Amino acid sequence: MGASYKGRFAPSPTGPLHAGSLVAALASWLDARARGGQWLVRMEDVDLPRCVPGADQRILQQLADCGLIPDEPPVWQSQRSALYQQALDALIQHGLAYPCACSRKDIEQALLAQGLNKARHGELVYPGTCRTGLHGKEGRAWRFATEDFGSSAIHPIHTHIAKGEASIAHSVTWTDRRLGPQTQDVAAEVGDFVLKRADGLFAYQLAVVVDDAAQGITHIVRGEDLADNTARQILLQRALGYRTPEYLHTELVLAADRQKLSKQNGAQALDTSSPEAVLGALTLAANRLGLTDSGTRDNRGIALAAWVEQWRATLQSQNT
């Protein structure tokens, strides 16, 4: 089990770690250690305008202060654009990506014309305006063709789709280790999603899928706020012939307004200035994950080892 397990923590360097991001980091580290596997760190800085200079190095230092050391040197998405372009080129070649000239305002107007004006999680469901061509406009972005995925002319790029499943290939069912069975019809609920933005930057959905495959990630442990992205990522994995990892989405840490704790709503930077502060932060994160701190208050290493054993025991109980 251990030799084949590879997990990762992939923060966006838009600021330092806070209590919520430490929960995800600790959970992914514990899952890897409890299974005797490898744990990697990847800086998801593909959206460069949102990144804060120096935040990546501060995050790495915070992780090190907490005893969460990756088994391989960290990688940065901003240095991996060639990999993303290769994947996009493959999708274009196989008719699974197309250029789009729509602005957000264009999408809003098209939805209003159809009597549909409700945003989904703040994200507009793309109506497919450019699916049949640019109609004289200049393409600025690239989108994944969810409607065409699994069409009758299935290319070998996704021959794993069983006969008879083609018509529902864009409806994804998967099982989360915590949340249980999940289903999403990506074409109906999300629409054709962006792979490369109008400003030339690659979108998160494509970058994360390519990186997970390139790094051999077998298990993904991350916050529940990212669960809604999973179906889109599974579609891309299928289209590109990648293996789908196992997923575990952890409970979120909420701010006073009951929204996800984040840098946007004033989450305080994680204090790792002293051993006491580190152990306190780790204990809070472990408690959020359902782990106890009995007998682990004196030493970070002892605490982490105890939590690894608790996590391993939980895994064993789930497998019996």
TrEMBL record:
Binds 1 zinc ion per subunit. Zn(2+) binds at residues 100, 102, 126, 130. One of its GO terms (cellular component) is cytosol. Pfam families: tRNA-synt_1c (PF00749). L-glutamate binds at residues 8-12, 44, 204, 222. The keyword Protein biosynthesis applies. One of its GO terms (biological process) is glutamyl-tRNA aminoacylation. Its EC number is 6.1.1.-. InterPro entries: Glu-Q_tRNA(Asp)_Synthase, Glu/Gln-tRNA-synth, Glu/Gln-tRNA-synth_Ib_cat-dom, GluQ/Sye, Rossmann-like_a/b/a_fold. It comes from the Bacteria. Coiled coil: none annotated. Belongs to the class-I aminoacyl-tRNA synthetase family. GluQ subfamily. This is Glutamyl-Q tRNA(Asp) synthetase. It comes from Rhodoferax lacus.
